[in-house]
Amino acid sequence: RAVIYMPNSPQFVISYFGILKAGGIVIATNPLYTKRELEHQLHDCGAETVLVMSLYYNLLKEVQATGSTNVKRIVVASVKDYLPALKKILFTLFVEKKGGHKVTLQNGDRKFTDFIKMGEKAPKPNVDVTPDDVALLQYTGGTTGLSKGAIALHRNLVANTYMLQAWIEWDYGKEVILGAIPFFHSYGMVTALIFAASIAGKLIVIPDPRNQKDVLGSISKYQVGIFPGVPAMYVAINNNPDVAAGKYNIRSIKACISGSAPLLVETKRRFEELTGGKLVEGYGLTEAHVATHANPVMGKNQPGSIGLPLPNVEVKIVDPVDTDKELPVNEAGEMVIKAPNIMAGYWNMPQETENTLVDGWLYTGDIARMDEEGYFYIEDRKKDLIIAGGYNIYPREVEEVLMTHPAVQEVAVAGVPHPSRGETVAAWIVKQPGDTTTEQEIIDWSKGELAKYKYPRIVIFVDELPKTTVGKVLKRDLVKEYKEAHPAE
């Protein structure tokens, strides 16, 4: 087992495929983890080897010093390893030390470039990797507490790659894919890193997906055609004034699959108008490594839907309480999935595995329904369902409505405690720049758009919504902050 602890970079790509080719198991770690989070993951996976970007080396050494992990070998990469000569000099002079990239390696730790040179002289590993060997421990995380290691076999990753190949039109060796979604997340790993390699595509590696100048400049310069992303990225492009001014040529984009968070209809409409390409919503989860549904890129698209099951994916909707009861068309319940890309289980967590995988079916925890044509719609996370005065309220429906208000740029809806209703609907809103709409005006407007029990009783304006590195809104942080400010409720 070997950990890759770095952002999207050439070193990540080399490390990832190198570990797999040597018969190892990859654990990709979020570079933004705190010491506590990093220590948990390293302890849980039991890896002895870590490949790390220099910026995170000192934190890794702090964790290693606790003695709570098995880490013995550390290989340290630098941003400048693969920079052109002039940029390497400029980075060394003006960025390396000031930016925290310059580190002094302790005894036994090696530079990435030296490690690669050693490998060039060493005999090639003689390993026999089978489809049923473990390839990856992919940790869930960000939105639901303690992360769990989902076990991916080699055949799971290959299966999902073939599914994606069947879903998107592509020319072997000619496609340009934007690798902006973090590769340490299963979504970026499969839809960009592995997919690009599988079709001999050109992979444009973006270290920071929030760097709009880098993202847009790369799309324009390299004429990106395939752009897997998350709604937050597409929203940012929609609202970028330089895009509106025509400073970037983004008309090369032909296919985008959005995942990790709900894609609002207005986001899709505006993005397709700007690019001329297709932006479709898909669905996946870490436990499926990664995708199970998507709207057809070139076929019929159902806005607001996660689309159809990918090839060889079986899906059923069951009663959230009586899970043996399968529900009919258009009735919402928990979505359960059986497919060749489903995980083998959780690492060192037999009880969690037993609760989530039942007779080969993965219980997703998502509330969904299927229409008459077989398209699926996520109503909400099972745990996010708001029950106010006995009524079931799906936050996504409220979010969709609020996004149609001209003052709203982004929105997140969740339930907060209420003394008589149990819970009530709260909406956190990022307003359009310069807008002067008040909270009460939003509430009054929503009364005309939503049933009496659904409209938000509480509206809170915020500068930004807290998100994970792949764009999922951290609603629990918003709710926690609200509870701390209103302890009596």
Structure overview:
This protein is α/β, with parallel strands linked by helices. The chain has three domains: 1-129, Rossmann fold; 151-383, 3-Layer(aba) Sandwich (Rossmann fold); 385-485, GMP Synthetase, Chain A, domain 3. 30% of the residues lie in helices and 24% in strands. The chain has helices at residues 10-21, 35-45, 57-65, 85-94, 112-121, 154-167, 186-198, 212-222, 231-238, 241-244, 265-275, 350-356, 395-402, 439-447, 475-485, and strands spanning 2-5, 26-28, 49-53, 73-77, 110-111, 134-139, 149-153, 176-179, 202-205, 255-258, 278-284, 291-294, 308-309, 314-318, 333-338, 345-346, 357-358, 361-370, 376-381, 386-388, 391-393, 408-418, 422-431, 458-461. The strands form seven sheets. The protein has a five-stranded parallel β-sheet with strand order 2-1-3-4-5. Strands 14, 15, 17, 18 and 19 form a five-stranded antiparallel β-sheet that branches. The chain is globular. The relative contact order is 0.08.
Question: What is this structure, in a nutshell?
Answer:
With 489 residues, the chain is an alpha/beta fold.
